[in-house]
Amino acid sequence: FALFLQVTCNCFTISNGEMQDVGVGLYPSMSLLNHSCDPNCVIIFEGYQLLLRSVREIQIGEELTISYIESLIPTSERQKQLMRQYCFECDCLLCQNQEKDAEKLSGEEHAWKEVRDAVDEVKCPKSKEEWEQVLTRCQNLMSSNMSRLPDTNIYQLKMLDWAMDACINLESWEEALYYGSRTLEPYRLYYPGFHPLRALQLMRVGKLQYSQDMFPQALETLKEAYNIMKVTHGPDHSLMQALMEIKEQCEAIMRKQ
């Protein structure tokens, strides 16, 4: 039991190129890093290799920090999660100021609670039929809550992400682009500076714009993703190589036009 608790408290969630969880691993030296909801470093994986990347200038003697949890959730939920899994309360400036909590839960409460419950029910769809059910549920909720929830509400944002994923899996590229484009401003708000999740979202939207022959828009979106990813992932990461390839393809098409 003691070993189990040590693993639970010190393990890292291993993610793939799409930032989806694929497992957990123990990296003893990285377990020495402390938490901040506004960290100066991020953890990136290349296969099972863990990479520690700084995302802003670090002063001599300044502590290196990472975020143990998803920073998108409101302060009170972050505190509960940190206490439940890691047995401490965070006192970083983000938590002290409860920054952006009002935006995260903006809109009518009964509406975002319904969306929250619906989002929590989605469990990794596998088949086409399951993805169709997810998309239909998202479309119905967004239609009924059109004037009640802004896209900056975090549960509305998660639903847009699910709708985008569903459309991609159903090969409805134009509709996927519609939902993906709506997520970009909320992502900019909640993941400012250099954040891997924002870079990945920009890359996904840029690829969708490319698929719809929107080459000028795609190039601008991919450039924005590149500027973030060169910091969060570095030039040698496989995801960065894939981004550079599609960016160069887009640039070649633009030169011919």
Automatic annotation (TrEMBL):
Keywords: Methyltransferase, S-adenosyl-L-methionine, Transferase
Enzyme class (EC, first level): transferase
Gene Ontology molecular-function annotations: histone H3K4 trimethyltransferase activity
Signal peptide: none
Documented EC number(s): 2.1.1.354
GO biological process: methylation
Pfam families assigned to the protein according to its UniProt record, in alphabetical order: SET (PF00856)
One GO cellular component, as annotated: nucleus
UniProt catalytic activity: L-lysyl(4)-[histone H3] + 3 S-adenosyl-L-methionine = N(6),N(6),N(6)-trimethyl-L-lysyl(4)-[histone H3] + 3 S-adenosyl-L-homocysteine + 3 H(+)
Superkingdom of source: Eukaryota
Keyword Cell membrane: no
Coiled coil (UniProt feature): none
Span of domain SET: 1-69
Tagged with keyword Electron transport: no
PANTHER family (alphabetical): HISTONE-LYSINE N-METHYLTRANSFERASE SMYD, HISTONE-LYSINE N-METHYLTRANSFERASE SMYD3
Protein name as it appears in the record: [histone H3]-lysine(4) N-trimethyltransferase
Name of the gene: Smyd3
